[in-house]
């Protein structure tokens, strides 16, 4: 298999990089998931998903999140720099979740890119937001109402805040 996102593969572990836009000409979920599933067949002790992404397509992100949760090999997510939007959601999929001391995690309301969605589009966006809230509240110390409010105002968390709110388990030093 031709591995585009995998680096540093050893007998025990592999790193798979999410260092681009999710979907929309960036990281294709199908390719990423196929590589992740291939790694799952190798008997590795762990897979590290390293993240530095401004986000992108929720649909592609859901596929990546679900695949991380579905495979047998433990997957750790590591926010190397930025995990914004759907990349921040993907970061929640890890068995362990870490962030660099300068890292940032961002949550916001989903959008179709237009400032005035019609009623049907708004209903779809509200439904997507509800599912994102479920993921974030299940993987943090915040309740659904708190998450909804933070998403509504687009919130950036530094490493300490991401840790304090339970979005990550630990912070690694770059010193």
Question: Could you please describe the fold and organization of this structure?
Answer:
- The protein is an alpha/beta fold and 175 residues long.
- The chain is 38% helix and 24% strand.
- The protein has helices spanning 29-40, 58-70, 86-91, 119-138, 144-152, 159-164; strands at 6-7, 13-18, 46-53, 75-84, 96-100, 104-107, 155-158, 170-172.
- The protein starts with 5 loop residues before the first strand and ends with a strand.
Uncertain spans: none
Radius of gyration: 16 Å
Average pLDDT confidence is 96
Percent of residues in helices comes to: 25-40%
Query: N-to-C SSE series?
Result: EEHEHEHEEHHEHE
Q: What would the keywords be for this entry?
A:
globular; 6 helices; 175 residues; single chain; alpha/beta; 8-stranded mixed β-sheet
